[in-house]
Design goal:
The complex is a heterodimer of chains A (about 525) and B (about 375). Chain A is of the alpha/beta class. Chain A has a domain at about 5-240: Rossmann fold (3-Layer(aba) Sandwich), CATH 3.40.50.300. Helices cover about 35% and strands about 25% of the residues of chain A. In chain A, β7 (about 165), α6 (about 175-190) and β8 (about 195-200) form a beta-alpha-beta unit. In chain A, α13 (about 380-395) crosses α14. Chain B is an all-alpha fold. Classes of the chains: A alpha/beta (about 525), B mainly alpha (about 375).
């Protein structure tokens, strides 16, 4: 660690109601280093960042930037001190061009054209220095996620950031985009910038950082030099116990297909082909994982299977009944009654009603079942009882089903959703992104649960953007690219390299051919 | 966590904030009254006395409140389904038309039947008038705010045409229908009190008030105790989750808007069947619009709506008395005071909400810090 500290916090604390989100956090980030902050979701990483960037004011403790005491009241203060942040959810105006987004709030002239030309010169210099090649005049909405992120980084640099905070920067990126980001981070460090890299993915910490601080339950539990630690040690520090990532899997004999898609074609909301001749079988007692770069038809696949989207041709059958063709659709309620459960991939957008209590959310999708409602009237007592049961069995915290579901952490929300979906002993579970936004402790639990259900003979269809996850829990993995299934292979034959090639649109034949070369 | 911390306690949201808004409105009104050379405190006491000081005043206050309960409930149920029904005014007009037609059609058979059919007719016509914008929203994506506003104008013109044409009182010059036949009316409450041996001054407060209160209970039960209400609220708060749960968003939009229209339509019960006993052009007098402020101030909850309706009823009645007692305070000034209440309770909600929230967060943190 170098002598001058870019950022230092001393005993920084912040609480929300009864929760000590940050409890005496002391952090030292050396100038010109890449510093990792790891912790589970809900450990207090976001709160810490928001204090460093002026979104929250600390209850107590000090923040020092470049050795000077600062107290940021808003992000503008932070930016004036050279602190820039790239948020997990980008702060870009989508119909605006990259250039317009970058100068937003830092226009040098009240005439837009002049401001743009001023900025363009400065940006071209910056781009050369940091090896960017951004389409400055392209509207952001036309850009891939990785490019948008680079636009955010360039924006921060343009506004004079010496210290860059990257909040979960890889959450939305493809593996290739991640690699590019890591390269960029290295380059930023070479140019003397300080980077605060916040994530809960440990191999990213190992790949990019110089130092790492581990946060658990609002406290710093360890500081390490990255070169002197390991993924295993960090994982242990994060959760406070040894994590066993291997999932016990029992073997099983071949059984009939529970869910079967035959030559399914479907369009997305824009009317473009999203699924092209997709054929898949999911058997009882197996986990079929769907891999692919986000946006290659996985969302539409989940939707056609669960009755949320009609299909243009082909057929889908479930438990031996045809549930969808070009002329048949089966509504989600009927599918649930037939024994299909659905854990939605975007929890807050689809899977729960954020502003309703957890109690009200446990009947979502099952609100017409006779044990929840009689003659149209809700059985509130029974619902409350069930909610209490779910909270107990899944260890949801805080244990109060009357709180709004949106006030729970991602992991606890997912626990509630899973409890709801497994409660009726489904034959098939369709799960999108089982552990997105879920902390490591809960991840293990959710993986165990998926395996338990599989061992109990259930059919499981799991879509995930996390390859490690799919490799850990699946029996077979199907890869999607541009709406097509590019390959289905048993997990024993799957490795990241093969899957990566299939994700990029290669076929199994040329994958094997390449290996033979 | 952060979202949770920014929440106000229930009582602050439901009582403190409306009280602050009301206070601010009265403060500004008071300054205006003072500038006119009158005593604002005397004006306030005259207003309160005019609204609650004697039995007839109370009767009028509740009479106006009845209108606001209907239109407030109408706005709130659409709001819970995620829609802003600005068309209460037009739906009330059509409700009045349905009511009038039913009265003239059925009063030959029996006045009692005529009243029952009038209630049904009011609800049905109101619902039907809301159906068209709802259908256009659900199936064609035409924004309901725009269409319901346009439908207010159509309703107004339609009523004007009918009341100077086919429905006009034979030989009459005014835009109004013939009087309803004897017996086709809702009984004033003072007569009912009389039947139980209690005397109460004559006034326009009538059985519609009881119907309105029953509607409030019904709306509460529907929204928070039934599966239908649950699905309606899910549609309003997260249409994606509604689709996930197998609820048809377009169907729910249509049904919720029709219930909303039916409630607005029933406003005519109070005005026409309870008081005027004939259909008048423009009988709705903006109650449909004020219903938006009532629903907003009442936090879209039936109990809150009843209280807010009572407040507006008191402003209408007390305001009229005040204008009568203090000649410098004209009818227009009263409308301005009512407008200020709507402004502070509705449009300027966040004027106080944000600072109050900040204060509460601070108190909470220091309290817990000490504990």
């Amino acid at each position: 660690m170098s002598e001058v500290l870019a950022i230092e916090t001393r005993e920084l604390s912040k609480r929300f109601g009864a929760v000590r989100a940050n409890d005496g956090i002391s952090l030292q980030v050396g100038k010109g280093t890449v510093h990792g902050i790891v912790g589970e979701n809900g450990a207090g990483k976001s709160t810490l960042l928001k204090m460093l960037f002026g979104f929250y004011t600390p209850d107590s403790g000090d923040v020092l930037v470049q050795g000077e005491h600062v107290s940021f009241v808003n992000p503008a203060d932070a930016m004036a001190r050279g602190v820039g942040m790239v948020h997990q959810h980008f702060m870009l105006v989508e119909p605006f061009t990259v250039l317009e987004n970058i100068i937003l709030g830092a226009e040098t002239s009240s005439k837009l054209d002049e401001a743009k030309e001023d900025a363009r010169k400065a940006l071209i210099e910056l781009e050369e220095k940091f090896g960017f090649d951004l389409p400055l005049d392209e509207p952001v909405e036309n850009l891939a996620v990785g490019v948008r992120q680079r636009a955010e980084i360039l924006k921060a640099l343009y506004k004079g950031a010496e210290i860059l905070i990257l909040d979960e920067p890889t959450a939305v990126l493809t593996p290739q985009e991640c690699e590019q980001l890591f390269e960029l981070v290295k380059l930023l460090r070479e140019q003397g910038k300080t980077v605060l890299f916040v994530t809960h993915k440990l191999h990213e910490i190992m790949a990019t950082t110089d130092d790492v601080t581990v946060i658990r339950a609002g406290k710093v539990v360890a500081r390490r030099k990255t070169s002197e630690t390991s993924c295993e040690e960090l994982a242990e520090l994060m959760v406070g116990a040894k994590v066993v990532r291997e999932v016990a899997r029992e073997s099983h004999g071949a059984t009939a297909a529970r869910l079967s898609l035959h030559q399914v074609n479907a369009c997305n909301d824009q009317g473009h082909a999203a699924l092209k001749n997709v054929s898949l079988d999911v058997h009882d007692g197996e986990v079929l994982g769907i891999a692919g770069v986000a946006g290659n038809g996985q969302t539409e696949l989940l939707e056609v299977v669960t009755g949320l989207r009609g299909i243009a041709s082909g057929s889908i059958s479930f438990s031996g009944d045809v549930v969808a063709t070009d002329s048949i659709t089966t509504d989600p309620i009927t599918l649930r009654r037939m024994g299909m459960a659905h854990v939605a991939e975007d929890r807050l957008k689809t899977g729960v009603v954020e502003s309703m209590s957890a109690k009200e959310n446990i009947i979502l999708g099952y609100q017409r079942e006779p044990d929840f409602v009689s003659r149209g009237v809700l059985k509130l007592k029974h619902i409350a009882q069930k909610a209490a049961d779910y909270f107990e069995s899944q260890d949801v915290r805080p244990r109060n089903p009357n709180l709004e579901i949106g006030s729970f952490s991602g992991g606890n929300q997912q626990k509630v959703v899973i409890a709801r979906e497994i409660a009726r002993d489904p034959q098939l579970m369709v799960i999108g992104q089982p552990t997105r936004g879920v902390d490591i402790g809960a991840v293990t639990k959710i993986h165990d649960q998926i395996t338990e259900l599989r061992n109990a003979g259930k059919a499981m269809l799991v879509v995930s953007a996390d390859l490690d996850e799919l490799l850990a829990i699946s029996d077979r993995i199907a890869v999607m690219c541009e709406g097509e299934i590019t390959g289905v292979l048993p997990v024993e034959d799957a490795d990241e390299k093969t899957l990566g090639l299939l994700m990029a649109g290669g076929s199994l034949d040329n994958v094997t051919a390449k290996e033979e070369e | 966590m952060a979202a949770g911390a920014k929440k106000l306690p229930f009582w602050a949201d439901a009582i403190l904030l409306p009280a602050l808004n009301l206070l601010a409105a009265f403060l500004v009104s008071g300054i205006v009254i003072w500038a006119l050379g009158e005593d604002p405190f005397l004006a306030l006491s005259l207003l309160i006395d005019g609204a609650f000081g004697f039995e007839e005043a109370i009767s009028y206050t509740f009479y106006y409140a009845t209108n606001f309960i209907f239109t407030g409930l109408a706005v709130s149920i659409a709001f819970h389904a995620g829609h802003f029904n600005i068309g209460g005014e037009g739906q009330a007009m059509l409700g009045g038309l349905g009511l009038t037609l039913a009265v003239f059609l059925f009063s030959g058979l029996s006045p009692f039947l005529a009243v029952i059919m009038a209630i049904i007719g009011a609800a049905l016509f109101g619902a039907a008038w809301a159906y068209v914008p709802a259908y256009l929203q659900a199936k064609r994506g035409s924004h309901i705010v725009i269409t319901t506003i346009m439908f207010n104008f159509i309703a107004s013109s339609l009523l004007a045409y009918l009341l100077v044409g086919p429905l006009q009182r034979p030989g009459g010059q005014m835009p109004e229908s013939a009087d309803f036949p004897e017996g086709a009316s809702l009984m004033p409450l003072h007569e009912i009190f009389g039947m139980f041996g209690k005397t109460f001054e004559d006034g326009p407060m009538n059985v519609s008030l009881i119907i309105a209160l029953l509607c409030a209970v019904g709306v509460w039960f529907l929204l928070w105790r039934t599966r239908f209400g649950y699905e309606l609220r899910v549609v309003g708060q997260n249409p994606n989750a509604a689709a996930f749960a197998g609820v048809s968003v377009s169907k729910m939009t249509i049904i919720a808007m029709m219930i909303s229209g039916a409630l607005a339509g029933m406003m005519g019960l109070n005005e026409l069947l309870g008081q005027q006993h004939r259909l008048l052009g423009g009988f709705t007098l903006g109650y449909g619009f004020v219903g938006i402020a009532v629903a907003f101030m009442g936090r879209n909850h039936p109990v809150g709506i009843i209280l807010a309706a009572l407040l507006f009823g008191a402003l209408y009645q007390g305001g009229a008395e005040l204008a009568f007692e203090m000649p410098t305070i004209t009818r227009d000034l009263i409308i301005m005071i009512q407008g200020l209440v709507i402004l502070f309770a509705g449009a300027l909600e966040h004027l106080f909400r944000d600072p109050v929230t900040k204060i509460f967060t601070k108190i909470q943190t220091t309290k817990e810090g000490a504990a």
